[in-house]
Amino acid sequence: ASAARDGKRFAFYNPGQEQSVRKRQTLLDKLKSALENQAFSLALQPKVCLKSGQLKGFEALARWTTDDGSSVSPGVFVPLAETAGLITELDLQVLDMTLDVIQQLIAQDTPLPVAFNTSTLDLLNTSYMEVLLTRIEQSGIEHHLLDMEITETQVMEEYEQTAEQLALLRQLGIGISIDDFGTGYSSLAHITDLPASTLKIDQTFVRRLGESEEATHVVEMILRLSERFGFDVVAEGIETRQQLQLLQARGCQLGQGYLFARPMPVAEALQWAQEHHRTSLFQHN
Ligand code: C2E
Ligand code: MG
Ligand code: MG
Ligand code: MG
Fold first, then answer.
1. What ipTM was assigned to the predicted interfaces of this complex?
2. I want to staple 110 with a disulfide (CB 3.0 to 4.6 A). Which of 164, 197, 226, 277 is the partner?
3. Which of 40, 58, 59, 117 to mutate to test the pocket of ligand 1 (most atoms within 8 A of CB)?
């Protein structure tokens, strides 16, 4: 064979790509054993009333620290778990930890709702709903203390298969929040009968509030839609006072973000709940 042809054939060999395939496999092995050992934990981020500054609840976010002490971001392990068929197992472990946290909040006399994140793959999994409802009933927790977050893009991609299940959860009094709202270009036809209680304005819009006319426009539109169709609204990723003020001026009810608090370990969040349960966060500013 001529050198030229070999050269061409070897152009398909990409050591970088092979290395990343191997890396992914290693991480996947670690993920599997982390699930077996229930090595995931929760970080809890407060949700705050933007009018009163009162603590209104928490969102539970999955955290993973591997044996060598390095932490892997959900932006990496969630998609990995999704493609490997492991996301439902992960999400059910997060649900159990969430139910546990709610029980601890009740026990210390600060009963507040806690939201957990889900993937549509959970709702497409035939046994998920049954397991979910069984565990919720076994916990004895009142449904209004639970809120399920699911991203707009995922809901819209599988609207026919998921809408009914979300509607059932709503009927049972469980909150349904549409996460990262504004990024998925929901059709208006769907928004009007979206089985949800809350829209969460995606942080990309909140971050550009006051800087980009377009982002400000999107936020205003979501707030109008919510008022018109009776959704609660949470603004995600509030980092500055200016963003807070712009949201307050437009009547946005609820918010989350580093300005108030970063996601924190469970013990810290329980203490946070005790400190802020009956006071306004704004008084401390
Ligand atoms: P999300 O549900 O939209 O969560 C918000 C993300 O924004 C979190 O990132 C949070 O730490 C971060 N964040 C909160 N406030 C601020 C802020 O002021 N500024 C900035 N820059 N970021 C802020 P995290 O924890 O890395 O989670 C990323 C995504 O991974 C989540 O987005 C959610 O979609 C997914 N995820 C997390 N835990 C789970 C889980 O248990 N199950 C599933 N299926 N997905 C999860
Ligand atoms: Mg979320
Ligand atoms: Mg979000
Ligand atoms: Mg997100």
1. 0.98
2. 277
3. 117
